[in-house]
Amino acid sequence: MSNVPPASDPFSVPPSPQVQPRSSSSATIWIILGVVGVMMLFCGGILVALLLPAIGAARQAAQRMQRSNNAKQVALAIHNYHSAYKQLPFTTNTNMAGEETIGWRIAVSPFTEGQRQWEMIDSTQPWDSPTNLAISTDPPMAFQAMKGNPGETGVFAIVSEESMFPPTADTKVRFRDVLDGLSNTVMMIELPNRTAVWSSTQDMTPDEAFAAISELDGAEAGHLIMADGSVRAVTNSLDRTTFDALVTREGSETIGPNF
C-alpha cells in the first residue's frame, strides 16, 4: 500500500475551481447606464434640433440690427456732407475726359470714418483705375455688406430724374428741393441680396431697387434710408405705388399711413 497521501499524489487531478455567477446587480447597473446613455444621446439630438433654428434666428436678428446701424451711419454722413457743402453728393463725378471718377460713397467716406480711404483716392482718375482700386477691398464699416466679400456693399442710391440722386453727373440737389417732405422721401436702399464694390459708381434705378425688394424672402428685410435720416425696414410686401411715391422728391403723392 502506498504511503503517499492522496493530496500529494502526482497523478491525481486537482478539483476544478468553482465559477462564481456574475452578480445580477452589476448587470442591472450596466443596463441602466446603457439606457441612460441612449436617452441622453436622443434628448441631445432633440435639443440640438430645437436650438439650431433659434440660434439661426438670433444670428439673423443680430445681423439685421448691425445692417440697420450701418445704414443710420450712412444717413448721418449724408446730412453731415450736406451741412458742409450745402448740397447732396453727386451720384457720379467726371474728369476732363468724361470718365466717371468717384461716386457718392467715396464723397461721404470722410464722414463715415473713411478719411484714410479718401486721402488715397485720385479724383482725376476713373474709380476702377489701379490707383483707386487699392481701396476697393477696404471700405468704412458703414458700407461693408454683412453677406459679401470684403469691399462689397449693399447700400445703393436710387437714381432717377425724379429722385434725390439724378443720373446726370454734377447735378445739384439740396434738401430744400425735396417738396414731398424729407420723412416721405427715400434717398437710398440697403439690401441683403444685392452687392457692389463699395468704391464703384454702381447704384440702382427705381425698377432695379423694387425688383430687389420683391425678391427678398419672408425672413429677410432691407432698409430704406430716408431723407430725414431715419431708417425703415422694408419687406417684399411693399407695393409699387407706395415705393414710387417714396422715390420722387417733388411728386406730391400721398403716402399711406401704414408705411
UniProtKB/TrEMBL annotation:
Domain of life according to the entry: Bacteria
Domain DUF1559: 57-206
Keyword Lyase recorded: no
Keyword Transmembrane helix set for record: yes
Region annotation (Disordered) ranges: 1-22
Database matches in InterPro entries: DUF1559, Pilin-like
Keywords noted in UniProt: Membrane, Transmembrane, Transmembrane helix
Residues spanning the membrane: 29-58
Protein name: DUF1559 domain-containing protein
Organism: Novipirellula herctigrandis
Lineage start: Bacteria, Pseudomonadati, Planctomycetota, Planctomycetia, Pirellulales
